[in-house]
Amino acid sequence: MPKRLLIVGGVAAGATAAARARRLDESAEITIVEKGPYVSFANCGLPYRLSGDIQKRSQLILQTPEGFEARYRVKVLLNTEALSIDRPGKRLRVRGPEGEAELPYDSLILAQGGTPFMPPIAGSGAAHVFRLWTIPDMDAIEAYIQKEKPESALVVGGGFIGLEAAEAFLKRGLKVSVVELTDHLMPPADRDFGAMIGRAFEEAGAKVLVGRSVKSVDAAAKTALLDDGTSVPAGLVLVSAGVRPNTELAKAAGLEIGPSGGLALDEGLRTADPSIWGAGDMIEVSRIVDGKKVRVPLAGPANREGRVAATNALGGAAKFRGALGSSVFKAVDYTFAMTGLSEKAARDSGFDTGAVVIHKGNHVSYMPGYEELSLKLVYDRKDGRILGAEGFGKADVEKRIDVVAASILGGLTVHDLADLDLASAPPYNSANDALNMAAFAAENELSGYSPALSAAEASRLASSGEALVLDVRTYGEYGRGHAEGSVHMPLDELRDRLGELPRDKPILVASRAGFEGHVALRQLVQHGFRNLRYISGGMTSLRLEPGYREAAE
Length: 553
Description:
Elements: E1 4-8, H1 12-24, E2 29-33, H2 46-51, H3 65-72, E3 74-77, E4 81-86, E5 91-96, E6 99-104, E7 107-110, E8 114-116, E9 129-130, H4 135-148, E10 152-156, H5 160-171, E11 175-180, H6 191-203, E12 207-210, E13 214-218, E14 223-226, E15 231-233, E16 237-239, E17 243-245, H7 248-252, E18 276-278, E19 285-286, E20 293-294, H8 299-313, E21 327-331, E22 334-340, H9 343-348, E23 353-361, E24 372-380, E25 386-393, H10 397-409, H11 414-419, H12 434-447, E26 452-453, H13 455-464, E27 468-471, H14 475-479, E28 487-488, E29 507-510, H15 515-525, E30 532-535, H16 538-542
Parallel strand pairs: 1-2, 1-7, 2-3, 7-18, 9-16, 10-11, 10-16, 11-12, 26-30, 27-28, 27-29, 29-30
Antiparallel strand pairs: 4-5, 5-6, 8-17, 13-14, 14-15, 19-20, 21-22, 22-25, 23-24, 24-25
């Protein structure tokens, strides 16, 4: 008899699993049970439809029940909720437009995704308060904008969806405020890169409020009250404060939920029940860098999980290696991308964490299209193994992060990355790519050849008076702003003014972006100075620190 495969959930993981299953077994009876009114839609594209970047709504609908039937002979049950699993009897009870029914299965894949979390905000049930997770959510926001023509938008939550929606609202001409509970936008990133993202949105006209929460929404006044008593305009409110996995069905069936809150699975994405697999946002996976069980609710892993789950549900032996959490998003005119562990996450995981920051051009400065990008490389100081990276800039950021993702999966070290032979030509790259330069800086830090410290630590030491900041930038750069209490000595004058520097106090060398600080440090070392470090990322990074104080003119 043909094998009966049921898939609960028909978006990224579920739809991919169905298509993969058909390619593996032409005779299998494959059915998708989808609670919503659409199957296989591009939920990542929803903010870009609101912004107008995607012109046609229909472009977001990747497949239809009729399309699945015609191409794959897959039956799709829309607006049908899975109610319970009879594991001994291998039957799924569902409720759809025609009432309740029981569907038999030989293999069952749970791919139910997640649901946006609504924090306890008084008035959150008002008609102008929305979330953005499905096509109906998008339609509701679009209809409200068209009808009510709000002048302002409040976005609650500074993660991917919230910020993509904030950009969409800016493009629609709304006055936008973004409120984020943590101390920076994009919480998975480190604080310095979150600050860059915040600056990008402020440049575009948004008001960014971090370390704050929304307490209430006033539907009549179209305002919102924050925890510090601040009132912000809120003609439209979008809440994007995180996503919770849809594990209720699995829990009721007695399936194990892991420490991250997602469905616990083995490396073949199978539950403890040999007939049930999982995929997508509702499951937990191994984080490739350290093996920790985490949830990675991203489209890339979800699609790969769907492939593995379908393969094994039909008798295969595929393995899911885990996820890096590689991600990218458009921050108005900039791009932010990251992979692996942030510096903070690496420290929290117990690594002897090293990190360097560089600010370098996407290609040679004499070619049109030159833009500076910022890159942080995170590594294990014990063996130089690459742990993660973050990038920010206007051009070619994501390609650097993709290289680091491949490097992590291959177990490469900063020494390997320093030797990596990357394509270069003036329109595309410089002879030493930004990644090569970051790896050089990491090698120099590890060997002690050129000790570096983070801008955060430099800010702390300078403000406490424990160290002297030596600014080696040009007179013009220094005159446009410098750290309070810093000593100015341009790099080209340094050898002739060594006598002006103390030898009994730690010196932190500050340059524009870090490289000239390294050059200055090497000069000072060879003239007998010992207690030295240069500031990784230079003044560009130091100015992102909340403790940084600009000298008064």
